């Protein structure tokens, strides 16, 4: 049986050999995710090639942008079908989570339909409610292997004006204006509304957990 001290370098060595792909499309912030993976010893490929995405051990689908423009690009390049047909673990981040849902109020956009949920715009209820929701906030009720080793109330970093309501696929919540889905999971599809790549050591643990699924 391996000791705990031996387990860490063995996992790190496994990550170095892993074939990790990041979906290339017209979204911002992708390189922040690539740099976060590199800090963990992973050298990912940035690609929109269907074969490379299908062959990858893990796929990340990050980004910041506008839903209708992002979906138009995905459809024009055939990436909508590629992503929904993936059998390997995939992690959507920020707009990646929103695009994996059924429909978004942003641009009245039909999305990928992986998660049976709609994306809504925050509606401020009080003067102090600012949109976008920007900054550090707490994760509540984290579940699934994505949050292995987590406790209630850990802080992660958000930047978004649209949100996914709590639904059957919710695996973590956050409260801003109202409770919403901070993370989702269905089959091999995982997603976070927050940015793990900008969430310090907490976000690094989430990315590690995803890579070690």
Task: Write up what this structure looks like.
The protein has about 210 residues and is α/β, with parallel strands linked by helices. About 30% of the residues lie in helices and about 25% in strands. The protein has seven helices and 13 strands. Mean pLDDT is about 95; it is low at about 1-5. The protein has helices at about 5-15, 30-40, 50-55, 65-75, 80-85, 95-100, 200-210; strands at about 20-25, 45, 60, 90-95, 105, 110, 120, 135-140, 155-160, 160-165, 170-175, 180-185, 190. The chain has a single domain, classed as Class I glutamine amidotransferase (GATase) domain (Rossmann fold). Strand 12 (about 180-185) and strand 13 form a beta hairpin. The radius of gyration is 17 Å and the shape is globular. A seven-stranded mixed beta sheet has the order 2-1-3-4-13-12-11.
List keywords for this structure.
single chain; about 210 residues; alpha/beta; Rossmann fold; seven-stranded mixed sheet; four-stranded mixed sheet; disordered N terminus
Straight-line N-to-C gap: 20 Å
Strand order of the largest sheet: 2-1-3-4-13-12-11
The mean pLDDT is 93
Q: How many structural domains in the coordinates? A: 1
The CATH class is identified as Alpha Beta
Order of H and E elements: HEHEHEHHEHEEEEEEEEEH
- Name the poorly predicted regions: 1-7
Helix content: 25-40%
Strand content: 25-35%
Alpha plus pi helix count: 7
Fold-level CATH name: Rossmann fold
* Number of DSSP-assigned strands: 13
Q: Describe the main β-sheet briefly.
A: 7 strands, mixed
Cα radius of gyration in angstroms: 17 Å
Query: What's the CATH superfamily, by name?
Result: Class I glutamine amidotransferase (GATase) domain
Helical/strand content category: alpha/beta
How does the overall form come out from the CA principal axes? globular
CATH architecture: 3-Layer(aba) Sandwich
